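Late entry, written up from scratch paper. The run itself happened at the end of the previous shift, but nothing got recorded in the book at the time, so transcribing now.
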Amino acid sequence: MSISHKLSIRQVIKKDNFALFKWANDLETRNSSFHRSPITKYQHKKWFTGIFKERCRNPALICLKNGRARVGIVRFTRLFQKKNNWEIHFTINPKYRGQGFAQPMLENALKWFRQTMPKQFVYAKVKTSNQKSLKVLQAIGFKREKILKTLPDLILLRLSVRQKKPIYQLT
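Output as recorded:
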């Protein structure tokens, strides 16, 4: 599905707080999350405050449609095992799900990431039941690494941000 709206990204700002709290507690979001319990206001406030403390180390981006409407969030979290490894997390605003926004949102965020943090590897963990996210990640070049032995319902995927062209096949 092609998107006729112009998508852009920007850093998360304090005005995004309530929208992100609502998205996080959406039933479909909770069912696709690793931790299915609803998020309390206290937990969200602690997480959201951390975004601003960690802005340089763990960037969070909001995707906008036509410069205004919030479509989703993409976060990058540095993995401490190796300095050039990151994990990507994303959520689509419930009212924009199923409209083809996930792929261009992630492509825009990864383009920003490549320009900001060159020569890095990006990983994604996806529940085996979350076929929508798995399909989108594979479409933008993530390759299946393995199913985690300690968490058999999770798939680990990897994207080499060093590469110029996406990879479209699984290994």
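The longest helix spans residues 102-116.
(Scratch paper discarded after transcription.)
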